[in-house]
Amino acid sequence: MSSSSLEHKSNENEGNNLRKGQWTEEEDAILAAYVTQHGPGNWNIVKQRTGLLRCGKSCRLRWTNHLRPDLRRGAFTKEEQNKVIELHAKMGNKWAKMTQDLPGRTDNEIKNFWNTRLKKRKRIGLGVYPDGIQPVHDAHNPETSLITYTHRDSEVVGTSSEHAMLTQNQPLLVPPISIVRENMNLSVKPEEKQMYDVQLPEACTSSCVFNNSNNSQNQPLYAQPIFQELHDL
DNA sequence: AACCTATGCAACCGCTCAGGC
DNA sequence: CGCCTGAGCGGTTGCATAGGT
After folding, report:
1. CATH class of the A3-67 domain in this structure
2. In CATH, what class is A78-123?
3. In chain A, where are the structural domains located?
4. Between the N and C ends of chain A, which has fewer C-beta atoms within 10 Å?
């Protein structure tokens, strides 16, 4: 696209005289020079200091997603793709958090990759995750099912959000969480459905196996997710 | 060649949160 | 405390382009 058409596309915001739309090379150069000299932050004064007709938000986004020198460009590698899937299963749509494990990638990139992947899989009738992975994540994410807990004495102790990756018919793995006790509704077979008291050690590490207190052999419980909306509890 | 559609990506918008006063 | 402001996050939108007809 020519710069003149870019000019045309990017609207002048009449009210506060701010530009919107695609950034030009000149704008990029001004912003990059400013941040190189002063460091990132104080985005709202960038406009005053540089004369850029862009709001602070826009400057921050442009720097974060395009101008930062440590950015990795190009398509996601297979390893990166697998990592995103793994991270999403663990934490849901926490794009910014995922960037900590995907150096050089931005939250926007990860989000776009995920949404594109999701669309593709839906189109061909596949689920969100590869076989064998059942996520535990956020109650507010309608795309996913929840592992939910039932609560004794109507006391809600906590939710499973961000806390566990559950693989069907595998021992339940629990990352560090602060919940001390929950009653957990596990279904092994429907007729055996019962309440289990779950005791978590104070400093629970990432491979804590729940034990059924009624289980004399002290074998790990094998859990299946109970699909139920949290707000229904 | 012209048009249409699908796709990917960049940017914006609205909301939340944290820090300062 | 409550308010204000700036920064950050996640969802959504809109544009450019590739591919198909």
Report:
1. mainly alpha
2. mainly alpha
3. 3-67, 78-123, 134-233
4. N
A123: nt with nearest C1' to CA: B6
Q: Measured CA to C1', what is the nucleotide nearest A27?
A: B11
- A41 CA to B18 C1' distance (Å): 15
Provide the positions of strand C that have an atom within 7 A of a protein CB. 5-12, 15-17
Q: CA A45 – C1' C2 distance (Å)?
A: 27
Is the CB atom of residue A68 positioned under 7 angstroms from any atom of strand C? no
Q: Compute the half-sphere exposure of residue A153: CA atoms within 13 Å on the CB side of its CA.
A: 5
Question: Do A3-67 and A78-123 fold alike per CATH?
Answer: yes
pLDDT tens string, chain A, 233 residues long: the values are 333 333 333 444 444 568 888 898 888 889 988 888 888 888 888 888 888 888 888 998 999 998 988 888 788 888 888 888 888 888 888 898 888 888 889 989 999 898 888 888 877 777 777 776 666 644 333 333 333 332 222 222 223 333 333 333 333 333 323 232 233 333 222 222 222 323 332 222 222 223 333 333 333 333 323 222 222 22
Give residue A55's identity as a one-letter amino acid code.
C
For the segment 161-220 of chain A, residues whose CB is within 7 A of strand C: none
Instruction: Return d(Cα A154, Cα A117) in angstroms, integer.
Output: 40
Q: Which nucleotide is nearest to A66 (CA to C1')?
A: B10
